Amino acid sequence: ADLIAERLGDAHHKVQHAALVLLDAFAEHMPATLAPFLDSVLPRVMQRLCDKREEVRSSCVLLLRRLHESCGSQVTLTGMVRALDAAQAPVKAACLQQLISSYSVFAPFIASCPSQARNLFLKLLPLSVDKVLELRRSSVQALVQLYVLAPLPFYEALMKLPGEQQAAIKKSLLPSLPSLDREAAAYARTKKLSPEVAAVSAHAISACLTPPSKEAREEGEWEIRGHAAAEEEVEGDSEESQSYQPCNYEEEPEDERRASGKYSSEGLSAQAVEKTPRKRQHEEEGADKERASAWEDRGIENEEANRQPRARGISQVHAPSCSPWRGEDDESLTSRERLTSILSQLNSSLSAQDSEASLENLRRLAALRNSGKKGGSLVQLILLLLKGAAQTGMAEVQVASLKLIDASLQEEEEEVDPLAHVVLRELLESVPRSRRSVAAQAEEAIGRMLTRCNPERGMGILAQALEERNARGDEGTASTIPVIVRLMEKQACTYPRALLERQVPIILPLLSSALNHSSADVRKSVVMCLVELHRQLGQGLLVELDGMLTAAQLKLVRIYITKTTGGAGGGTAVC
């Protein structure tokens, strides 16, 4: 896969296109094989988004869609964000336009992952005051969409900026978000979202999660926009549009920059320096009419718009004409729609009554278990629900979510390998600082999921999780290392000897490293796992451990081996 990715830099467009097609085949049929190379593959793919040839750009977009389906939102979005560090302005502009047109695809992940939302904010921030006009305009549009999807991380990142930078970014966003300054000041006082902002965010997320029609998907999601196509659109359409418009990527003349006062306040609005008939027309129409028109474009009634903050400029995150707050007795709702409703409520700072209603909805959904749905999208949506419940401390919702994940994975006829890594990561995140019932349910769900995976793949993702936690030094009661090690022990009981022998060179160094942990619970779980491996592999394991463990650690392992074998096989082990 890495060798194929290198051909993306070939001078001939047919070679580039062939490489993209091959990578698409890898992503569809062998996502696990492609996964280790994505860090090097994705930046090269993003560079081809600004290619002059339509077939190359289209293949890039199709590959990104495939990676999103196979490897998840985190992998794809991370690659797009990294591409914003590129030195070439055309690459940055193409990435921004792809990000804007795909916001509805990434909405669930962005809304449920505050750290990713903050990282995206920090990446877009310098582009909003860039010398290139097109980059400023696109980054402001992307920031507006980020604000609607994840207002809380947006405010948190904004409040950490120096005063001058805060003023500059607020001034840039003011034409699109007139209420930003007031809402940010309210958040700084209360550290809570206002009901209006929370309602708009939940409404937008629900709209993105609602399965669109085939025509809407073709028009809205993963939109392919190139320089030539955008140029034709601008020339043919005189009305206001949020679509990509070409840029010559040249700096503005010095006198224009000085006249605009751009650098005097460290960044003005991207729209403030725009001198077009379209802009003058909107200035004449007035701000009130402009904002009302923006809300009407989203299909939201004027009465509802008066209760919600006006956030203009959202082209891809549309709210549906119907309300996302569905009645509990609506039997026509699908599993996905009910989960969407619950997720929206969780993102809206639940009251106790709303929490009980959401929990009851979830229980009904768990009982129905719409097995006709594909497990991939359903499981990923439940994971978002689980993360929202963990952030709000709702143990009952966490347990119900875990049971629903467990049931969904059991009902799936297809292999769960592509989902295994994502599910494991999210379930492990639900264990720390949770009630025992939640932790036990999460561990049970992980174990059952691993039995559905390819054995080698299952042990591999456990080894990767253990390596990550060893590297970052999980300490205290919040450590998930004991859970991972116990899962390794359970998996070792079911694996054939030949498979374990192939895994030993990978897992033994990780276990020996975990045996140096400060927590007694971690050390005990590692010792018991080594005892189980000894039961499967015999004395050869002790020979391997002799060069990895200290004399005291090796003696401890031998003592436990003696205890578990009742002295029958332990006599030779102690010698």
TrEMBL record:
HEAT repeats lie at residues 507-545. Residues 229-333 are annotated as: Disordered. Coiled coil: none annotated. Residues 331-570 form the TOG domain. Residues 231-240 have a biased composition (Acidic residues). SUPFAM superfamilies: ARM repeat (SSF48371). It comes from the Eukaryota. This is TOG domain-containing protein. Keywords: Repeat. Residues 281-307 have a biased composition (Basic and acidic residues).
